Amino acid sequence: MTIFLKVDVDSFCSACYIQSKYLHSFFIWRICKMVVEYSEKALDILTAARDLFAEKGFTSSTTKEIAKKAGVNEVTIFRYFKTKENLFEAVFENFYFRPDYSHFENIEEGNLNIFLLEAGHFFHSIFLKNINLLLIGLRESSIMETKTIIDKFLNEMVIRMEDYVIKTKSCTKAEAEIFCITFISSVFGILFNLYVFKTFKTGATFDECLEMLVTKYE
Q: Last residue of some domain: 90, 125, 154?
């Protein structure tokens, strides 16, 4: 039973002589569907693993415990995911980096203040929802491609924000890229300080910090 499918889309489409932009997009959509679809049993395993990894950490969580929590045989976990490391990576990708971008993508052009506030709240919600999983992933980066997954997410955010910034600020792509990178870095700096490191003691809430930050980027 195959769970993961890695495909070089461009090579696949070229080999099949798929030149149409519409058909190319269709094949990308179908391949993405194949990658992210899981059976009900596999989703039960992922959910159980997510909860245990968040509660006990990667090293202290055993596949036997995960199987018991998911209501499956331990062998079933290895049939689906092969290794514990693969299981954790699947948990990380399935629950952390499948965000819904729609709530700030349709903001009217020219309103950079609202756009940045929405982007900041978007990062905040993802961070809070997955903070334990994220920290475990960073600690276990030596045994899996967590950093690559995080990098892909952040780079995707830069790309998604660039067009809006270019149109609103009438700047070059290079300038927009720097703008987005520094803004995203600043937001995550606030998040890590407020919820993880707590290096700088402050009575300010995230919303207050974000509003102050946005005024510097208008």
A: 90
Cα–Cα distance measured from residue 53 to residue 50, given in angstroms and rounded to the nearest whole number: 5
- Shared-domain flag, residues 125 and 209: yes
Q: In which region does residue 39 sit, left (phi positive, over 0), alpha (psi from -120 to 50) or beta (all else)? A: beta
Q: The tokens 């997009």 sit on which residue?
A: 25
Domain of 135, in residue numbers: 102-217
pLDDT digits (tens, 9 = 90+) for 64-73: 999 999 999 9
Residue 110, C-beta contacts closer than 8 angstroms, at least 6 positions apart: 167, 168
CA–CA separation, 42 and 136 (whole Å): 21
In this predicted structure, what is the pLDDT of residue 78? 97
- Cα distance between residue 19 and residue 163, in whole Å: 26
Q: Which pTM does this prediction carry? A: 0.69
In a domain, 97, yes or no: no
C-alpha–C-alpha distance, residues 63 and 86, integer Å: 12
Check which CATH number belongs to the domain holding 58 and give it.
Answer: 1.10.10.60
- Token pair, residue 200, equals 């700088």
Which residue in this structure is represented by tokens 């955010």? 157
Q: Region 90-111: what's the mean pLDDT?
A: 77
Give the pLDDT band (50/70/90) at residue 142.
low
Q: What is the DSSP code string of 145-173?
A: -HHHHHHHHHHHHHHHHHHHHHHHHT--H
